[in-house]
Amino acid sequence: MVQKYLNRISGPLLDRIDIHIEVVPVNYDKLSDTRKIENSSVIRERVVKARAVQAKRFEIVKGVYCNAQMSTSMQKKYCQLDETGGRLLKTAMDIRGLSARAYDRILKVARTIADLDESETIRADHISEAINYRNLDREGWAG
After folding, report:
1. Buried/exposed 46-80: b ≥16 CB within 10 Å, e otherwise
2. Of 22, 26, 27, which Cα lies nearest the Cα of 142?
3. pTM for this structure?
4. Domain assignments of the chain as residue spans, ordered by start
5. CA dihedral over 59, 65, 69, 75, signed as positive or negative
6. 3-state DSSP assignment of residue 49
7. 6 pLDDT band (50/70/90 cuts)?
C-alpha cells in the first residue's frame, strides 16, 4: 500500500525534495543505550556556525543566503569534489539512475554537511551521507 502511494509521486516532484529518508521504529537497544548523546544546544551551535559560513559565502550575491539557493555556476565554484567523491557520486548516479536535478541536490546537501563538519572541502563521507538522504530515489523503497 505504501509503495502504491509512493508511485503516485512523480519523479520530477520527488527530485525537488532535497532530503527524503525512511524513519523506522527505534529498537529497544538504541532506546536503552547509556552512551552519552549529543546535546541539542551543541547541535544548535553547529547549525548556527554553518549558517554563518553560508551567509558569509554568499554575502555579495543578492537573494542567496544558503547552499540550497546556489545556482549552477555557484555549485561549480563551491561544490568541488575530489576524485574519490566524484567517483562515489558517479557510481550512485549510475546505480540509482539519478537525474541531473538529484545530482544538484546531492551536491548542495553535501556542501551543507561539510559546513556542519566545519570542512572547507566536500569529502567523500559528506557525499556518501548526502546520497543516503535520497532514499526515495531507490527502487523498492518501502516494500
Report:
1. eeeebbebbeebbeeeeebebbeebeeebbeebbe
2. 22
3. 0.81
4. 40-143
5. positive
6. helix
7. low
Please give the Cα distance from 81 to 89 (Å, whole number): 9
User: Which amino acid makes up residue 33?
Assistant: D
User: How far is Cα 139 from Cα 143, in angstroms, rounded to an integer?
Assistant: 9
Helix, strand, coil: what percent of the chain each, to 5? Answer: 60, 5, 40
Q: In 3-state terms, what secondary structure has residue 122?
A: strand
pLDDT digits (tens, 9 = 90+) for 73-130: 999 999 999 999 999 999 999 998 888 888 999 999 999 999 999 999 999 999 999 9
Q: Which long-range contacts (CB under 8 A, 24 or more apart) does 21-25 make?
A: 21/132, 21/133, 21/135, 22/135, 22/141, 22/142
Pairwise CA distance, residues 117 & 43, whole Å: 11
